[in-house]
Specification:
- By secondary structure, this protein is an alpha/beta fold.
- 46% of the residues lie in helices and 13% in strands.
- Helix 6 packs across helix 11 and helix 7 packs across helix 8.
- The chain is elongated, with a radius of gyration of 21 Å.
- It starts with a strand and ends with a helix.
Length: 269
């Protein structure tokens, strides 16, 4: 009987909505607010009520959760329209990068229970990683409900310190782009070594995807999995001597994550 309002039904909002429906949430208990009718035709077909504006939501509909899934730069214009739900009965669950709990408290008032979360794009295939943080008005039952909603697209972790969402953003929020860059770079290295471009791209994509699935299913740590495919004196060991050198991947990734973390803090201000 959970009642939900989904503000924004783009790629991430749509992935969440599809996950909710597949996990058994009644379509009749969900209102999606999305002005782009073409983006939500599939949701209408599954029985979800779609409205172009929050002003159309009936006064009698009191959601348990208002999911804020619009782009961060749209929040200033969108959030104030939902203040009528900000009296404590509804939890506001944001997936917007860089928008702090204090930001939403300023717009919604000091009675609003607020959860800020940071998902990532593998949510589109229900393999996402989300980290969430709540203000003091969110009770355990509400946290459990928010966790269940976010788990529709992957794994969920909670932190008490909101400042940790900056490195979370840098590691898991931006992390898929690092993996895609790895596939790009591996393919280009194959081309430079003499492989045809289409074969190099196929090898890189299949290797990254397969290794990711192995990591997902294995009980061993990444370090153990790496050691398992590294024979002493072999080709992998020779390559890893370069990648694990003082100017190798660890130094570069650490620098990249630090840069992303710094930018996340700047955006939050």
């Amino acid at each position: 009987m959970t009642k939900l309002v989904l503000a924004g039904c783009g790629k991430m909002g749509g992935a969440l909505l599809a996950g909710w429906l597949d996990r058994g949430i009644e379509a009749s208990n969900v209102i999606a607010v999305e002005p782009n009718a073409d983006a939500v035709a599939w949701a209408v077909a599954r029985g979800v009520t779609v409205m172009a504006s929050p002003d159309e939501i009936p006064e009698t509909f009191v959601p348990d959760v208002v999911m804020l899934a619009v782009k961060p730069q749209m929040m200033d214009a969108v959030v104030p329209a939902y203040t009528r739900f900000a009296k404590g009965a509804s939890v506001f669950l944001s997936i917007a990068a860089g928008k702090t709990i204090a930001y939403f408290e300023n717009l919604l008032g000091d009675a609003a229970p607020i959860v800020r979360s940071m998902p990532n794009t593998p949510a589109a295939v229900r393999r996402g990683m989300t980290v969430a943080c709540a203000n003091g008005l969110v009770g355990e039952a509400a946290k459990t409900l928010c966790r269940d909603l976010l788990e529709a697209v992957g794994d969920v972790a909670w932190v008490d310190d909101e400042a940790l969402l900056d490195p979370v953003t840098a590691v898991s929020g931006s992390g898929p782009a690092y993996v895609f860059l790895l596939a790009e770079s591996l393919a280009q290295a194959g081309i430079d070594a003499g492989l045809p471009a289409d074969l190099a791209a196929r090898l890189a994509r299949g290797t990254v995807a397969g290794a990711g699935e192995l990591l997902h299913q294995a009980d061993e740590s990444p370090a153990t999995l790496r050691q398992n495919v590294t024979s002493p004196g072999g080709t992998t060991a020779e390559a890893l001597a370069v990648l694990m050198g003082s100017d190798g991947w660890q130094a570069v990734i650490t620098k990249a994550v630090a840069a992303a973390c710094k930018r996340s803090r700047e955006l939050a201000r």
